Amino acid sequence: MNKTALHLPIRAAKPRHTGLTMVIDGGISLGQFTDLVSSAAEYVDFVKFGWGTAVVTNSLHAKIEVLNANEIGYYVGGTLFEKYVLQGRFDDFRKFCLEHSCQHVEEDLEAGASLVTLEARESGKSGICRPDGALRFGLIEDVLASGISPEKLLFEAPTTALQAHFVTRLGPDVNLGNVPAQGIIGLETLRLGLRADTLTAFE
Predict the structure, then answer these.
(1) Looking at residue 80, what is its pLDDT?
(2) Helix and strand tally (H, E) in the chain?
């Protein structure tokens, strides 16, 4: 919602299908989590409990209650899924998700997924990024040229530089993930051209 007289990009209201923001929780305290999520809930579509933190977070149920109260989806990290599979415990992973009422899991298109995640990890130094954090520009352009709609892609972008690139390249409604909880508002300003990195992108 544009609360000023400025001409800003139009952002869809929740529940939305584009311009999705997935925030990663790496184990911040319940109080901080509650404050950050509730104060910026309109900008958050999903929260991922990063890697295997869902197993060792003693406030997981309380955090899930916060997300449910703010109509935010959630799921557990792909690394946790991989750990279950490595131990031949796929059914136990399904049970874990069901016990926590997870409505979302990381899958692939052939399994019926609605989004494809382009991995950068929480560090921004893997997958679509090089070990020094630089984006693999050629890889991204190959993916975009493959025929998959950008609306079905979720780019992991934990850093401001990565977020700014994708917002500039694909517009304010690009789907972005692994956004640090402390960076929710900052990302929204990037999407609206209210930050130096994207100030002239939509003029």
Answers:
(1) 96
(2) 8, 6
